[in-house]
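Ticket 4471: requesting a sanity check on a complex prediction with adenosine monophosphate. Repro inputs:
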Amino acid sequence: MAITVVGSVAFDTVETPAGRVDRCLAGAATYFSLAASYFTDVRVIAVVGEDFTAKEEAVFAARGIDTRGVERAPGKSFFWQGSYLENLNEAKTLQTDLNVFASFEPKIPAAYQDSEFLFLANIDPVLQKRVRDAMPGVKLVGGDTMNYWINDHRDNLLKMLACVDILLINDTETKLLAGSRNPVKAARDVLSLGPKSLVVKHGEYGATAFFGPNSFHGNGLDSHHPFRAPALPLAEVVDPTGAGDSFAGGFFGYIASQPELTPAVFKRAMFYGGVMGSFTVERFGTERLRQLTREEIEERFAIFRELTHLD
Ligand code: AMP
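Returned structure tokens:
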């Protein structure tokens, strides 16, 4: 089964206590598609500028990712600069240049229309909604966003949230979006905006899934019973950028690889999300995510399992 993803394909400049990288290939859709590519077929919708060369294209090609929906436009690609010097668990944005994304009109290749899954990775919610509306055949829609869009584009974001089945955002974004700071009440507020399930990512502390009344029932999951998955305790986090998108890629990639989305599959997907996020943060940019094997992924999944096994 195939996943189509729309989101930023970008160049990032990132500073962390471990060092600094300048203009490395990044972006929400890039991290998502690399992570998901270990589980299923991935198709990308985005726009890039003249600075996106054959070298960057090769990163997608090496993982078999379909980039027919990545448009080339005159100008520069999306650029983001962030720092983790003050807080390794949350980026401080120093610069966001939308560049070619500012005037992007997504065109969806006909070959993408039979995708069963759609992931609306972080980008302008107007674009996310446009792509969702243009792909009526998908059976499950996931979504992500960030403070940039929650603070300044709230009305558009609310329209996007109304068409998402599973929303994956972090703690701070959940609190920004909701009226309450209590995690359970905040989750309830966010679920009332449209998503059937909400996965709240806690960075180095894992992730919690909350379910609305129209979501799962069974295997210990329902609207009164959230599910928590751990993150792997790591001795060194080199660059946290993309951990959330890689979590989403592992999570949706695993779901897409299974015949049916059952509560048990949802739980395992939370663990695969954590596995992919844990690899990403071990190196700067997408370096670690480019060269994994399925065996390494399964080995780490087994570590996650042991980490939480009680008896
Ligand atoms: P995360 O998984 O949350 O760490 O996502 C990091 C990626 O999001 C970076 O590679 C950035 O290029 C990208 N990004 C940062 N700000 C934005 C934004 N406003 N819209 C879309 N993508 C963004």
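Notes from triage: Residues 8, 10, 12, 26-28, 31, 80, 96, 122-123, 146, 148, 241-245 surround adenosine monophosphate (CB under 6 Å). Leaving this open until the requester confirms.
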